[in-house]
Design a protein that fits this description.
By secondary structure, the chain is α+β, with helices and mostly antiparallel strands. The protein has four helices and 13 strands. The chain is 23% helix and 33% strand.
């Protein structure tokens, strides 16, 4: 389990927009702690101290120890609101993580073995399908990230979730299929060459068919101009001279 960083907080008696505004004017950020068997608790955190934590990409997936009036509670941030202009935190929701609790988190994916990958050595391109994976994690086994190994992948090979080691008790939220995390695809130049070759082959295959169709059309056009068949003698035509009547 990761070592928990501690964040100090103090109880916050009032609620509502007016009280939250006054809390921010004093250099604090209003927050709420909920979950578990205890009732929700309103607290305030030092804005400068909080910003040191919110500046990381893993803030919403990192458990912390919240110290409120000498009482410590293990929590994880579940929502962070920031000012649209200054980008500073203006409110935080914390979820309590009692012993044995599980939480659904989007954990980032990292990769190793790029320098050994046969596909990447041949000019292939890493196509990342999922930058994050939703996992159900025990409170004691929340990973900072999960890592996929690319060292054996060639062009057109894929890395699936089953190939990524997960901490004990951690399982993907999607369990009915072995979904793809990343793949090695051919470079654009190769793909364009393959497309051009396929188009040329298709055109060559279609050429005899087109020629045969043109010949058939020419024969059909010539039929109306053929010499008419000799007309049969008309009934009752006059007899030639010398013939008996």
């Amino acid at each position: 389990m990761r070592e928990l960083k501690e964040i100090a907080a103090e109880p916050r008696a009032g609620t509502g927009k007016g009280h939250a505004y006054r809390t921010r004017m004093k250099g604090f950020v209003p927050a709420v702690v909920y979950g578990g068997k205890a009732t929700p608790e309103n607290v305030a955190l030092d804005a400068h101290q909080l910003q040191r934590h919110t500046g990381t990409d893993t803030f919403l997936t990192t458990p912390v120890m919240l110290s409120v009036g000498g009482s410590k509670t293990r929590v994880i941030p579940r929502d962070l609101q920031v000012d649209p202009v200054s980008d500073r935190p203006i409110h935080v929701d914390f979820l309590r993580l009692p012993e044995g609790a599980k939480v659904k988190l989007a954990i980032p994916v990292r990769f190793r073995g790029q320098e050994s990958s046969p596909g990447l050595k041949r000019g292939g391109v890493l196509n990342i399908v999922r930058h994050e994976v939703e996992l159900l994690c025990p409170a004691e086994s929340i990973p900072e990230y999960i890592e996929g190994d690319l060292s054996e992948l060639d062009i057109r090979d894929s890395l699936h979730i089953s190939a990524i080691p997960l901490p004990k008790g951690v399982v993907p939220m999607v369990r009915e299929r072995d979904f793809t995390i990343a793949s090695i695809v051919a470079p654009t130049s190769v793909i364009e060459e393959q497309r051009a070759a396929a188009a040329a082959a298709a055109a060559a295959a279609a050429a005899p068919v087109a020629a045969e169709g043109a010949a058939s059309a020419e024969g059909a056009a010539a039929a109306p101009g053929a010499a008419p068949a000799a007309a049969a003698p008309a009934a009752g035509a006059a007899a030639k001279p010398g013939e008996k009547k």
